[in-house]
Amino acid sequence: MSDRLLVLVRHGQSEWNLKNLFTGWKDPDLTEAGVAEAREAGRKLKAHGLVFDLAFTSVLTRAQHTLDLMLEQLGQTKIPVHKHLALNERDYGDLSGLNKDDARKKWGEDQVLIWRRSYDVPPPGGESLKDTLARTLPYYVQEILPCVLRGERTLVAAHGNSLRALIMVLEKLSPEGILKRELATGVPIIYRLNADATVASKVDLAA
Ligand SMILES: O=C(O)[C@H](O)COP(=O)(O)O
User: Fold this and answer.
1) Domain with 176 in it: what CATH number?
2) pLDDT for position 1
3) Which of 54, 59, 65, 192 maximizes the CB count within 10 A of its CB?
């Protein structure tokens, strides 16, 4: 029986995560802690006996660097890697580069939470989760899912909100259901899919 394996990993801590800045499509690299998280993610995947046939990532440095570090730990640096902006973080628009606490002081706790976690309210000049889903989902359906369903064991290194969008679809979560879903940096989530693309099992390596 083919192993329809799909592993999703949010990048390790970035320089701007550390500084508490809205990042979106800005392109900071990982911090030392982020590098350590990515290596740890790779070690955990290896400890679970996982092997991959290909990987997908965004066009942003923090996700690519995380993927490279995981593949190093797995001893799998030669597998094909597909990079696409469909997997980029949600575009935070005018908030990009602003401190999240300063934004709360300026616009209020509730408004900032709406921008960060509501399904369909975009931050000024940026993308809502719904907008993010509108670009990640077609890429998932057309490029990633066919590989998984063919039995190609697939690793995806991406971002908090591009992955929340995919998780919403995979786990059939409602807009309310996804609201409280936070993704820790550098923590793999291991899915195995049924032939009809529904989730057969899920293991969150944070748990
Ligand atoms: O782009 C960012 O600032 C973060 O990677 C994700 O931010 P969020 O948790 O505020 O959505």
Assistant:
1) 3.40.50.1240
2) 62
3) 65
Catalytic site includes residue 171: no
Q: Which of 31, 75, 32, 38 is nearest to 57 (CA)?
A: 38
Give pLDDT tens digits for 134-156. 999 999 999 999 999 999 999 99
Distance CA 92, CA 54 (A): 29
The complex's ipTM works out to: 0.96
H/E/C letters for each residue in 25-79? CCCCCECHHHHHHHHHHHHHHHHCCCCCCEEEECCCHHHHHHHHHHHHHHCCCCC
- The pLDDT of residue 170 is 97
Range of the domain at 72: 5-204
88 annotated to bind ligand: no
Question: How many whole angstroms from 151 Cα to the centroid of ligand 1?
Answer: 32
Can you give the pTM of this predicted structure?
Answer: 0.97
Q: What is the pLDDT of residue 93?
A: 98
Comparing C-alpha atoms, which of 143, 187, 153, 145 is closest to residue 169?
145
Place of tokens 């908090």: 160
Is 82 annotated as belonging to a binding site? no
Counting the structural domains of the chain, the total is 1
pLDDT beyond 90 at 78 = yes
